[in-house]
Specification:
2% of the residues lie in helices and 49% in strands. By secondary structure, the chain is mostly beta strands. It has four domains: 170 residues, Jelly Rolls; 344 residues, TolB, C-terminal domain (Neuraminidase, 6 Propeller), CATH 2.120.10; 85 residues, Immunoglobulins (Immunoglobulin-like); 88 residues, Sandwich (Immunoglobulin-like), CATH 2.60.40.
């Protein structure tokens, strides 16, 4: 049976002398999204299925700004960037960003285009909207009267709409630049606006977090409320089940998001305007190089300072699928990172940019599967740009950069695992991987927690025996790479290792009689008391530790599954299995319906090998036939191993020395023990120093002082599934 192997945690480094090999073998095993995501992908994708594959190639161009806050691909094909912290509009020309216009503000937060090809962009604080004509002429178009504009949307029926803060309004700006209030939401900030296929405008808010629709002049309807205090983005979507919305939300402790940014702006050292709030237009100027500056040197806060309140652990983001009137479903849960932008491509995939670690996630909504699609070197991804129905542009911050997503599979894709800690110096054994296609594996080792000059060089995994070639050490790191345009998938890998035997120490010695303590046993036998007279004295306790008791092997497998059942309907389940290499699924027969999300399967009647389980669920017991819904999910491959290893070739090889071989058909031998004349079991070492093969040779010497004559020696071997095989030999010692 498949056993789950623990993943060692990374802790402080410790350099210890090599004292000898331990008998038992341990494993580092990586087979889940959480485990893979502890590592670092380079143009590689980490899927929530628990697998890594090559991603698309990326071309990143540095931009001399702290962050790119918005990206717009115009109808003419030109790409525009709203940036901070110098309030600049940039344009992409021949694949390279060039400065288009300086607003003398802090940040260009939002971009929009009308049907005539005019580009509108909002700059804060004391929000002003600028217009750029198709010929490239830029002018100030409207003073909004708001401190901040976070989002712009061109609505053919109303004109240009702007979401503001901290008054939580939606403004409408006419063709002449006249500003009017369309909606007052009662929230602090309106963070995003979007228009669905039917022309209905939707928006999201912070302070009070909700999704709303605009029903008429001055009227709006709250469609969905959230416990989270920041509803960052909304993207209208549709599928075979109808219309729905991808919604990105954040929950922060303390200040966060636009509220935090506003607080930082108000604390700027530049003199405040008479109106209060943020600085006035005159508080900013451009120097001779055209770079935005505040009047006093400390002036503008950096992007890192603005987002400090959103550091790791201070914010959690979530992407929901919202169906109006039918509730919401989690598509992407994040811990320690917030959502900064959402976008959807023509295939229906949703992309989420995050403000910690430079990661962009791809979500497949139908199956609620997500992946770290891109992992940039920047600390934050702030803006996403769709072009030609594909995610083509990613804007980042700290440092500012523009990344273009290509259509080709990366030829430089790599994945660096987390650093594995064996706790003590270890000898590395067999490397095992499962997946689809060929993945190149390399390893390096060292005795410091972080890889440095003292670590070994990267060493390729030998194809002949797949034994890790890196030298013995406490720490190990794995690097996976893919040649050319390979589309191989790495689903699970494990590394066998044996740690060095550590010296033991005496910390307390008791001499003479002492009262027993509740948690201790005296090292000496207690003296005989009057009440003991006439009784057999108890033998002294041995100070030799007993061998660990063997785990019991069983042919039964516990199958469990997790169910998201929002309405609590009674569900029934059916299970089937598929041997590796077969296309058909074989039903698992049961006497009655399975109604709980777990099942004990006895595999005694099936051959050893790798299998998959499929679970099918139906709510037919709780609904009419025309309203029944079903779902199914497959497991990852797992090993069934019910066959015990064999101990063969037992013989008296030399005086008082026994040798032999332990073999198994399915999983590696993990330990061997012997017993002399029915006494305690004693561990035996592998001949090559580590148990990691299907066949292991061994030899051991009987204890010194074993008397001459006939003796029975029993030897038992265990495989990775804890199956036990025993053999014995009768010998005559002279």
């Amino acid at each position: 049976m498949k056993r789950l192997m623990p993943i060692a945690a990374v802790c402080g480094w410790l350099l210890l002398p090599w004292l000898g090999l331990a008998v038992s073998t341990a494993y580092f095993e990586v087979d889940s999204f959480e485990q893979f995501n502890r590592g670092e992908p380079k143009e590689a994708v980490i899927s929530s299925r628990g697998e890594v594959r090559p991603g698309l190639g990326l071309l990143t161009t540095p931009v001399e700004v702290e962050g790119i806050w918005d990206i717009l691909v115009s109808s003419s094909g030109a790409v525009f960037l709203g940036t901070g912290n110098k309030g600049q509009l940039w344009r992409v020309e021949k694949g390279k960003p060039v400065l288009e216009f300086e607003t003398k503000k802090l940040i260009v937060t939002a971009l929009a285009e009308d049907k005539q090809g005019n580009l509108y962009f909002a700059a804060i604080p004391r929000a002003v909207i600028f217009r750029r004509t198709p010929s490239g002429q830029v002018s100030e178009w409207a003073k909004t009267g708001a401190d901040y504009v976070w989002t712009l949307l061109y609505d053919p029926n109303r004109g240009l709409l702007a979401g503001t803060g901290p008054d939580g309004k939606v403004l409408v700006i006419s063709a002449s630049g006249e500003v009017k209030t369309l909606v007052e939401t009662g929230a602090e900030h309106v963070l995003s606006l979007a228009r669905d296929k039917a022309g209905i405008v939707y928006g999201t808010t912070s302070g009070k977090g909700f999704l709303f629709s605009i029903t008429g002049k001055g009227k709006f309807r709250i469609e969905e409320s959230f416990e989270e205090n920041e509803v960052k983005r909304v993207v209208p979507m549709s599928d075979g089940s109808g219309e729905w919305f991808a919604v990105g939300v954040n929950q922060a402790r303390g200040r966060g998001g636009p509220s935090g940014l506003a607080a930082f702006l108000k604390k700027m050292t530049s003199p405040p305007s008479e109106k209060g709030g943020g600085p006035d237009e005159g508080d900013f100027r451009a120097d001779s190089d055209g770079e935005g500056k505040d009047k006093e040197a400390p002036g503008l806060p950096g992007l890192k300072e603005m987002m400090a309140a959103r550091g790791p652990g201070k914010i959690s983001g979530t992407v929901y699928a919202v169906r109006l009137g039918k509730g919401k479903r989690v598509l992407l849960p994040l811990s320690g990172a917030g959502i900064t932008d959402l976008a959807a491509d023509s295939s229906g995939a949703v992309f989420a940019a995050t403000d910690q670690g430079g990661k962009v996630y791809r979500i497949e909504p139908e199956e609620a599967i997500y992946a770290v699609e891109f992992d940039l070197k920047a600390e934050q991804t702030l803006a996403l740009g769709i072009e030609g129905g594909k995610l083509r542009w990613i804007g980042s911050g700290m440092p500012g950069g523009l990344t273009r997503v290509t259509d080709r599979i990366s030829s430089q894709a790599e994945y660096y695992s987390d650093v594995f800690d064996a706790s003590f110096p270890a000898k590395w054994g067999k490397f095992t991987q499962r997946g689809e296609g060929k993945t190149r594996i390399e390893t390096r080792s060292g005795n410091t927690e972080e890889p440095d000059e003292g670590w070994s060089e990267w060493m390729a995994l030998p194809e002949k025996n797949e034994i890790v070639a890196s030298p013995p050490a406490r720490y190990l790191q794995v690097r996976a790479s893919w040649a050319g345009s390979s589309q191989a998938v790495l689903q699970v890998f494990s590394v066998a290792y044996a740690v060095a035997n550590q010296a033991h120490y005496l910390e307390q010695v008791e001499v003479g009689a002492a009262p027993e303590r509740p948690s201790e046993k005296s090292l000496l036998p207690r003296p005989m008391m009057d009440q003991d007279k006439g009784k057999e004295p108890s033998p002294p306790q041995s100070d030799r530790p007993s061998p660990r008791p063997p785990a019991e092997s069983t042919t039964k497998i516990q199958i469990r599954w997790k169910v998201d059942n929002p309405d609590g309907d009674q569900l029934i389940y059916k299970l089937s299995y598929q041997p590796e290499g077969y296309k058909k699924w074989i039903p698992i027969q049961t006497d009655k319906d399975i109604t709980r999300p777990r099942f004990e399967w006895d595999t005694a009647s099936i051959p050893d090998g790798y299998y998959r389980i499929k679970v099918w669920a139906s709510d037919e017991k709780a609904n009419p036939p025309d309203q029944v819904t079903t779902a199914e999910r497959e497991s990852k491959p797992f090993l069934v191993d019910n066959t015990a290893p064999e101990v063969v070739g037992l013989k008296l090889a030399a005086k008082s020395t026994i040798s032999g071989t332990a073999t198994d058909r399915t999983s590696p031998i993990t330990r061997i023990e012997y017993a002399l004349d029915g006494q305690d079991w004693v561990p035996v070492a592998a001949a090559d120093g580590i148990f990691d093969e299907l066949e292991e040779n061994f030899d051991f010497a009987l204890p010194a002082g074993t008397p001459s004559g006939l003796h029975t020696v029993a030897v038992r071997a265990y495989d990775k599934a804890e199956n036990q095989g025993v053999s014995q030999i009768t010998i005559s010692l002279p």
